Amino acid sequence: MALLTKAPRGTQDLLPSKAHRYQYIEKVVAETVACFGFYEIRTPVFEHTELFNRSVGDTTDVVQKEMYTFEDNGKRSISLRPEGTAGAVRAFLEHGLFNEPLPQKLWYLTSCYRYEKPQAGRLREFHQFGVEAFGSQSAAQDAEVMAIARHVFDRIGVQNITLEINSIGCPVCRKEYHKALLCFFNEKKGDLCETCLGRLERNPMRILDCKSPVCSAIAADAPVITDFLCDECTTHFAQVQKYLNAMDIDFIINPHIVRGLDYYTKTVFEFITHDLGAQSAVCAGGRYDGLVEQLGGNPLPACGFGMGVERLDLLMQAQNIEVPEPEHCSLYVAPYNEEFSFEAMRLVNDLRAEGVYALTDVTGRSVKAQMKYADKCKADYTMILGADDIANKEVKVKRMNDGTVTQIGLDDFCDDFIRLTINDALSDFAGEDFAL
Question: Concatenated DSSP letters for 195-245?
């Protein structure tokens, strides 16, 4: 029975005390991407397993070790999405968005699932903010995508976060790089983990992304891709840097970034922090010019990124970044007894129809208990509704922060209460001292 009251390992409940933090992040994200002309897309939680095998890559840790895969009642292999890009590309192709004006700019904030050891900032069910831009091969698109992440961090107030960039080239220049890696790792075969031994012939670049401490130490001395870039990839990478400089976005070149998914080409990047210990990457992405064609479409360049919401929230907490408090109650209407609860419910319903956060009793509490509850709800105003109020068609509304009492007629209560709150807000505003 204990399992019925305990969330599965690697998942978490977002209670109201924490959910408002995520709502704030979502609000910042939505406002930021709108400035860049990106539009939201929502894709299914699960897809055909083959989609991830072909896009993410069957030599990656994600596909080999971490996907939640099962067979449905129709004997089809289905997987919960481990990341957002593959589903976005599938939707882009299925619905013919390539026929729309390019570039097509999409964004999402979605749940993802990976079976890995749970730890701070790395859950089995996590949330990812991502953007995908289809149709531009210009380095300007790469830089614009990175600028979105930079703007989100800046608007939230995140400090001490560094953009690291690299180019992992195209299929042309990677052929020579793969040869160099094979030569290097073949001399270290005796020390590689079993997984990396399987990757050696199929995709030696995956060894560079292995989480094993031994393989990581070996990979640190491996040849770097930037020494093997073709002229086109070299020029593209130089252009990316020029656009970042034009936007005053600081960055450093890290030739060891390869990213953990097979679909990347040319530009790859990570936003790194040292305030979260080992979980240093908060956002990562790059260009994937071959993925659309790989999934059955015509050749079409694309780029994007994924940002972990849980990890971003941890960073905000580590840096003591304050999040706006959730909206609290504007008016609490306390009926003197059940006889007046019907009129109280009518009043709050009218206010709610006008967008006012209003509450009344639904539990049969005494007036004293209702006032305590109103205080816990941080109500800006309270009023007690009784026989005299109904008879006189007039009520007394108390402003809780200073005790001011205002009489309002019941006939036009909704409009008069809203007018009262506006006048009080203007009065407070006029009393503030502002320095230019």
Answer: HHHHHHHH-GGGGGG---HHHHHHHTTS--GGGS--HHHHHHHHHHHHHHH
> In the sheet where 281-287 sits, what is the strand order?
39-40, 104-113, 125-134, 302-308, 281-287, 265-273, 161-167, 252-253
**Residue range 63-94, pLDDT digits in tens:** 777 899 999 999 999 999 999 999 999 999 99
List the chain residues with pLDDT less than 70. 1-2, 58-61, 259-262, 278-279, 431-436
Contacts of 194 (CB under 8 A, 6+ apart): none
CA dihedral 278, 282, 285, 291 (to 10 degrees): 80
Asked if 267 and 287 count as a contact pair (C-beta separation under 8 A), the reply is: yes
Alpha helices in 74-137 (DSSP H): 85-94
**CA separation for the pair 148, 285 (Å, rounded):** 12
Say how far apart CA 368 and CA 229 lie, in whole Å: 75
Q: Tens of pLDDT along 216-261?
A: 888 888 888 889 999 999 999 999 999 999 999 999 999 888 765 5
DSSP state of 54: I
Task: Tally Cβ neighbours within 10 Å of residue 302.
Answer: 26
- How far is it, in rounded angstroms, from Cα 277 to Cα 123? 16
Helices 309-318/16-35 angle, 10° precision: 110
Q: Residue 82 CB: number of other CB atoms within 10 A?
A: 25
- Count of residues in the chain: 436
**Domain annotation for the chain: domains and CATH numbers:** 10-170+230-318 (3.30.930.10), 331-423 (3.40.50.800)
Strand pairing category for 161-167 and 252-253: parallel
Report the largest interatomic distance among the alpha carbons of the chain, rounded to a whole angstrom.
Answer: 94
DSSP code at position 189 = G
In whole angstroms, give the CA distance from residue 428 to residue 343: 31
Contact predicate 130/22, CB 8 Å: no
Pair 385, 395: CB distance under 8 Å: yes
Q: What is the Cα–Cα distance from 330 to 397, expressed in whole angstroms?
A: 11
